[in-house]
Amino acid sequence: MTTSFETTAERDSTTMRSGSLLRYARPGTLLAFRVAVTVLFLLHPIDMIGLLGGESPGGVMVAISVVEILAALLVAVGLFARPAAFLLSGMLAFAYFVIHLPDGWNWMENGGEPAALYSWIFLLLFVLGPGPLSLDRLRRR
């Protein structure tokens, strides 16, 4: 909200400063988001393998967990980040619909909230891409 004493030039100057701040903050924020999401997500497949003290179910679940770990690391460093994020989004959507949804529609009760949330997060990273602070950007140069 502007006051009647504020001139158009002052309003435009404020808008330009906040716009350029956002432009400069976006690459670092996207990098921090990619890394934070990956660190939080990695605890799930690492636990499924049994490295955090959990009991490994073995077989197919270990193979799926290894794929999730590798894809998440690619997203974190921004190398082939879009295909990796798309793969993770699909895997987590599949996990939600096949494993959690049969236990009821409420994701808070069927244990599917993390799968649904991470599926949407990785879909967002697929759409946004890794940003300028990524190995993909260096690879293209």
UniProtKB/TrEMBL annotation:
UniProt keyword annotations, A-Z: Membrane, Transmembrane, Transmembrane helix
Bilayer-spanning residue ranges: 31-52, 58-77, 84-102, 117-135
InterPro entries the record matches: DoxX-like_oxidoreductase (IPR051907)
PANTHER family linked: BLL4328 PROTEIN (PTHR33452:SF4), OXIDOREDUCTASE CATD-RELATED (PTHR33452)
Protein's name in the database: DoxX family protein
Organism in which the protein naturally occurs: Actinomycetospora rhizophila
Top-level taxonomy: Bacteria, Bacillati, Actinomycetota, Actinomycetes, Pseudonocardiales
